[in-house]
Amino acid sequence: MTSHRWSVESADRVGVRGVWTAAQARARALDLDILTIAAVLAVAALAAVLRLGALGSPAQAGEGRNVSQVFAVDSLGALLDANASPLAWLQAGGYTALTEAFVRHETALGAAREPMVLFAVITGILMWVLSRRMGLSRLTGAIAVGIVALSPMALGLQLGVRPENVAMPWALAGIALLWTPRKHRRLAPDLWATLFLVIAVITAPVTALLIVTAAWLIWRRRRKRLSLMLASLFVLGTGIGMGLAAGLAGLLIAAEGPRAQEWIATDPLLATAGLLATLLALFSYRLRPLAVGVLALVAVAVIPGGPGTAALALAVAPAALLVTGIVERATRPPRIPAVILGVVLAATAVPSWVGGLRASISNRVDPEPVADASRWLQENLLATPVVTDGITWVELVRGGRDPKAAKLVIDCPATCSAQSWLVVTPGLRLVLSRRSALAQAAATGETVAVFGTGDDRVEIHRPSIVGTTDTEEERQARAEVGAKVADSPRIAAPITVDQTLRTGRTDPRLLTTLAALSQTRPVRVTALPEVAGEDAANQPRRQALLTAAEEPADEIAQFFTSQNGVLRPESVTTTTEGVLIRYPAGTPAGLLIPFG
C-alpha cells in the first residue's frame, strides 16, 4: 500500500494558502480603513473645536444680515427676505431651533455660527470621501482634511454665517456621487447627485460655478442621453426651486463680505499653493474636473466688487484636495525633490497657522456694550424705532424689544436713515462704506449715549433733524443759567451738584423747572444722578433728586407732574430720600439760548 504525502506544491495546499493570504490582506485593508476613518474623524473633531473656540471673534462684513435671517426662522417663524437664500436659512434656523442655540449662547452671533461648525465638520468628512472616489490614497485625503481644519483662512471662511457654507456639503456629496471610473452604472447615484447639486445651488447660487466640475464628469462618460437627462433635471429643479429673483438676491448677498485679498493675506501659503496646484491639476486626467471648477471660483473671486468671500468659501476645500493630490502624484513613485519640497512647505505653514489660529481664538468681542445699549433703549426709547445692523437687531429682540421698534439697515432707505435713531455698533460700521446716506446720518447725528470702548464701542445717535445740544452756544447757555440757579438763595445743593450746574452739564428742562420751583418754595437738590452711558457722550444730566424742608414730597411731585409740553418729566418717583425727577432722552435744543 502506497502512502500519499502533502507537498508544498500541492494544489489543495496552494488553494488554502491563497484563501488565507487573501483573508489576511482584506483584514489588513479593513484595519487600515478603520484607522484612516478614525484619523479623519479626529481631524474633523479638531476642526470643530477650533471653530467653536472662535465663535466669539468679531463679525465679518455681511454676517449681520444673515444672522438676522437665521434668528427670524428660529424665533419668529418667518423669513425676513424670502428671496435671499431662503433654503440656507431654513437649514441653519432649523438646526438652531432644534438645539436651542439662541437660548444657550450668550451672543446671537455665536448661536448663528454654531451650525456653520457642523457644516464644516460634514465638509471635512465628505472631502475624504471625495478623495477616495478620485482615486487618491487614504493618507492624501486625510492630509487635505487636516489642511482645511488648521488653515486660518479656511477657519475664517467656514466660520462665517454665509449660505455658501451651508451649500458646500451638498455640492461635495453631489460631486462625489458623480465621480466614477465606470462608464455604465445604475442610474440612482446620478439622480441623487443631481438632487444634491440642485439643493446646493438653491442654497447658494454661487455654487453653480461648481456645476462645471459635475458637467465635466458626466461629459467624459460619453453618454449623450444621460447627459441631456441630468442637465434637464438640474435646470428644471433649480428653476422651480429658486427662480430668477432669488438667484439675483443670492448673488447680491454673496457680494457682501471682505474682499478676496483680505482673506488671502490671512494665509498666503495656502492661497499660493492652491492656485499653483489648480493650474497643475489641469494637466492631470484624474484631477482635471475638480481643477476646472476651482479655477472658475478663483476667477470669480478676484473680480473687483464680485462675490470674493463666497467664491473662496466654496474653493478652499477642493483646493486643499488639489494641493494634496498634486503632491501625491509628484511623489509617486517617491521622488526626493518633491518630498523635500512638501516637507519644507509643511514646516513653513505650521508656525504661520499656529499664530493665525491663536489670533482667531483670542480675538473676542465684548458682549456687554450691546447689552448695555439694549437696556438703555428699553428704559428710554421703548417704542421709538431704531436702526441698527442685523446682529444687534437680534440682540435687541432677544432682550425683549418689539421687532417693530427695531429696523434693519437693509430695510431702511435714505430718508429713513436721516430721520431715525441709530445704534452705531461695530457691525454697523462695517457697512457704512457701502451706504452713503447711512454714513452721513451717523456722522451728523448727535451721540446721546456711549457704551464700551475701542472696537467694541456702541453709540446711540439721534437724528440731526431735531437739532443738537452738543454745541458751544448750547453749553454756554446751560452754564449761565446753571450758575444763576446755583447762586439762588432758595436752592441748596452739595458741592458736586453745584459744580455740575455751573459747568453746563445739567439738562435745560431741569434748569427751567428748578428756577420756577425756587420762586415758590425753598428746595434742596440732593443729587443729579447719571444715566448710564450718557456722561460718556457728554450729555447733560436729566435726573434730579429733590427734597423740601417744610412740606411733604408730594407737593414737589405735583409741581413737576403739572408741567406741560417739553417741560413735562418722563417720570416722577417719590422715594424715602426725596423726589426723583427724570426727563426723556434727547435734550431739546434752543430752550435756554434766548435767556442766556
TrEMBL record:
<feature type="transmembrane region" description="Helical">
    <location>
        <begin position="226"/>
        <end position="251"/>
    </location>
</feature>
<feature type="transmembrane region" description="Helical">
    <location>
        <begin position="34"/>
        <end position="54"/>
    </location>
</feature>
<feature type="transmembrane region" description="Helical">
    <location>
        <begin position="191"/>
        <end position="219"/>
    </location>
</feature>
<feature type="transmembrane region" description="Helical">
    <location>
        <begin position="336"/>
        <end position="354"/>
    </location>
</feature>
<feature type="transmembrane region" description="Helical">
    <location>
        <begin position="290"/>
        <end position="316"/>
    </location>
</feature>
<feature type="transmembrane region" description="Helical">
    <location>
        <begin position="263"/>
        <end position="283"/>
    </location>
</feature>
<keyword id="KW-0812">Transmembrane</keyword>
<keyword id="KW-0472">Membrane</keyword>
<protein>
    <recommendedName>
        <fullName>Dolichyl-phosphate-mannose-protein mannosyltransferase</fullName>
    </recommendedName>
</protein>
<feature type="transmembrane region" description="Helical">
    <location>
        <begin position="142"/>
        <end position="161"/>
    </location>
</feature>
<feature type="transmembrane region" description="Helical">
    <location>
        <begin position="112"/>
        <end position="130"/>
    </location>
</feature>
<keyword id="KW-1133">Transmembrane helix</keyword>
